[in-house]
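Exercise: predict the structure of this protein bound to heme C.
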Amino acid sequence: MKIPHKPFTVFGTALLAMSAFTSVAFSQAEFPDAPGRDTVFLVCSQCHSIGRINTAKLSADDWQFIVYDMISRGAPVYPEDIAPLTRYLQDNFASNKR
Ligand code: HEC
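Solution:
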């Protein structure tokens, strides 16, 4: 998120603080606590927002591909974290799940 370099009114600053707070609460609810979650927060937020993940419409197969795609782009995922991470994304964000 880019914060515009404009003078803030007190009201504008309060709104910004509130929206920052709700977006944190929102992402925690959207990312259930399970193995792989820490990797998502640590690794997948390095180049883009983790909002990319819960807004993506991807099948289980797509997620498998995405994990390797992101690693090939430089995402630092330990080899032993690849399986739980993939599982986590598929379990929680595969659009063809149900
Ligand atoms: C090294 C940088 C980097 C890291 C780390 C990274 N990504 Fe990405 N990701 C990218 C780039 C670059 C794109 C393409 C951006 C664009 O098209 O605007 C992208 C796009 C995406 C997309 C959208 C793909 C689509 O087809 O809609 C998803 C989903 C995604 N990343 C998930 C992840 C996940 C999950 C992780 C953690 C494993 C992760 N990313 C970590 C660089 C990264």
